[in-house]
Amino acid sequence: MTTDRAGTSTVEAGEWLATAASSGYRWLLSAAGCQALETAFTIAQWVGLALIAGDVLHGDRPTWRGLGVLFGGGLLAAGTTWSAARFQAAGRLRIAYAMRRRLVAGLLPASRRHTEPDPAAAALAAVELTDDIADFHAQALPQRTSAPVSMALILVTTAVAQWPAAVILLLASLLLPLNLRLAGLFAKEGADARMAATTRLGAVVLDSFRGMPTLRNVGALARRRTELARTADDLNAMTIAVVRRAALSGAVMDVVITFSIAANATYVGLSLLGYVRIGAAPSMTLFRGLLALLICPMYFRPMRAMAAAYHRKERALAAVPAIRGLLVEPESSVVAGDRVPPSGAPVTVVLGNVSLRFPATEEPTLRDVNLTAHVGGWTVVAGPSGAGKTTLLSLIAGVRTPSHGSVQWLTPSGASAPRFGGCAWIGQQTVLLPGSIGDNIRIGRPNASRADVERAIVAAGLAEVVARLPQGLDTPLGEGGSGLSTGEARRIAIARAFLSDAGLWVLDEPTAHLDADTEAQIIVALRNATRGRTVVVATHSTALARSADLLLGLTDGTIRTDQEAMRV
Fold first, then answer.
1. What's residue 1's pLDDT?
2. What is the 3-state secondary structure (H, E, C) of 178-217?
3. Is 252 helix (H, G, I), strand (E, B) or coil?
4. I want to staple 87 with a disulfide (CB 3.0 to 4.6 A). Which of 30, 389, 421, 463 is the partner?
5. Which fold, 10-328?
6. What is the DSSP string of 481-535?
7. Given strand 378-382, what is the order of strands in its sheet?
8. CA angle (213, 215, 219) in 5-degree steps
């Protein structure tokens, strides 16, 4: 049993992949039924054509029976083909939709996630990997169900017309499983490499967009462009390799199919000429021979589709570990006794001997940090840039886990590890999405009533701003929040946090880039909105530091309480 880099065995991945089809199973089963009917109607169509050809070659006019069977079978076959495609598309859509819903639910902070997911991996899973799995099921499940029925219908019809031709088809069938296995091995060899190249390209593109100002300022745009081009070339090479392997396995199957058709054509031709005669076989007629030759290629069509599905299966299996890692976190990341603090519950934050060292650094960013943030108090952490203030906040908020020590949230229901998204976070920049002011505030709680939103506006000191707008809460905001000042946008962030009703607020430079008057107003709004809440603030601001109930200094990764360390 093989295991991928994420620790998922091939058997486990296959079982998970099978369960992913449940949301579209009924539709894909209907598609399989239509495909089997399409085979039956196509056989009838070829029977009609063979009847007409026999009449014409004997000098007779085509009978209405032959014409009716030909056109009737053709119309019914076309209808079932269209229906099968519609059912396949519906099943694929439902599978992809169900998986994306689960992904979104697992990626958003409201889930049971304890750490922030990698953005590049999340984007790849939501945009491409779900389609890989949905495409596989849409193609493979109907074919796997209908292929035995279709091949049996064709084989029985061939045996009735000329059983030696059916024997030739059966002999050729013995080589097909080997070809399908070859297709699967070729596909698996390239799927993992292509997956790694796709993930790497997504990460490079995302990092480039994030760091564009820095890259431009340090003159590294040319180097990043070269790296991006090289990564894209690697992905192209991997994709071409996968296509080449698929073409090779397809060529092997074409040889088998061509040999079978040629053998049947030779047998039919020699039998019609009188050179070959098998005593137990029915006498060869033009109708029987032509019918056997017409339906012979149909026998291999389901197997060709199954070979193509093998390539999709390996791509889907390669996608399973990445998606599973985003849907459900490993059990080791869940602390025993973990509980989700109820909405609005008071939270005391306790850090015990916490240290954090990033893999790429020799020295720890934080070392032996002990801190207690009490309910209803403002704990302000001051310090120079690069001291680790934002890193400390990320540990408290559950975005990261410490290398050593423990971070706990204490509530009336007990102690729990920090849960990503379980607190209110306000950073240096407020992201405003296209939509109304009310829509942007409801991001904190999408099902909030208008009365709840209005209370949040009052708490954030935004009531006067909303009152003078022409459409009030329904006033639309442009992309990036155009139409609001930085201070007003910051108040929307406060209203969102208030609406979330979190017992813990984590503020990272909440008054950055504001003038003195606006900063004072934001501090008052924050104080009003956080009554009874636990607040942890990281700041350079002297005004914000003066508002602290407990002021701590952070220098060289260590918390200090002496006055010199707390100067900002």
1. 45
2. HHHHHHHHHHHHHHHHHHHHHHHHHHHHHHHHHCHHHHHH
3. helix
4. 30
5. ABC transporter transmembrane region fold (1.20.1560)
6. -TTS-HHHHHHHHHHHHHHHT-SEEEEESTTTT--HHHHHHHHHHHHHHTTTSEE
7. 424-426, 504-508, 534-539, 378-382, 550-555, 558-560
8. 120
SS3 call for 148: helix
Please provide the distance, in angstroms rounded to a whole number, between the alpha carbons at the two ends of the chain: 59
191: which 2 tokens?
A: 């799927």
Query: What phi, psi does 352 have (nearest 5°)?
Result: -120, 110
On whether the CB atoms of residues 98 and 131 are closer than 8 A, the answer is: no
Please check whether the domain covering 348-560 is classified as CATH 3.40.50.300.
Answer: yes
Give the residue among 268, 324, 262, 273 at the shortest CA–CA distance from 292. Answer: 268
CB 77 within 8 A of CB 41: yes
- How many other C-beta atoms lie within 10 A of the C-beta of residue 320? 23
Q: Tokens 């920090």 sit at which residue?
A: 418
Q: Are 533 and 525 in contact (CB under 8 A)?
A: no
Task: Give the whole-angstrom CA distance, residue 539 versus residue 329.
Answer: 32
Q: What's residue 278's pLDDT?
A: 76
Give one word for 557, left, alpha or beta, with left for phi > 0 and alpha for psi -120 to 50. left
Residue at 16: amino acid letter: W
Compute the distance between CA of residue 376 and CA of residue 519 in angstroms, rounded to an integer. Answer: 21
**Is residue 72 pLDDT above 60, yes or no?**
yes
Could you tell me the two tokens for 389? 């203030």
Tokens 């408290």 belong to residue: 396
What's residue 185's pLDDT?
Answer: 54
CB distance 251 to 244 below 8 Å: no
Query: Is residue 409 helix, strand or coil?
Result: strand
pLDDT of 34 > 90? The answer is yes
Per-domain residue ranges of the chain? 10-328, 348-560
Q: pLDDT per residue over 228-244, tens digit each?
A: 788 778 777 777 766 66
* Coil vs helix vs strand at 23: helix
Q: Are 50 and 62 in contact (CB under 8 A)?
A: no
Question: What is the pTM assigned to this prediction?
Answer: 0.56
Rounded to the nearest 5 percent, the helix, strand and coil shares of the chain are 60, 10, 25
SS (H, E, C) 265-301: HHHHHHHHHCCCCCCCCCCCCHHHHHHHHHHHHHHHH
User: Per residue in 25-48, is it b (16+ CB within 10 Å) or e — as a string?
Assistant: eebbbbbbbbbbbbbbbbbbbbbb
Q: Is residue 323 a contact partner of residue 130, using CB atoms and an 8 Å limit? A: yes
Q: Per residue in 111-122, pLDDT tens?
A: 455 556 666 677
Mean of the pLDDT values across residues 388-394?
85
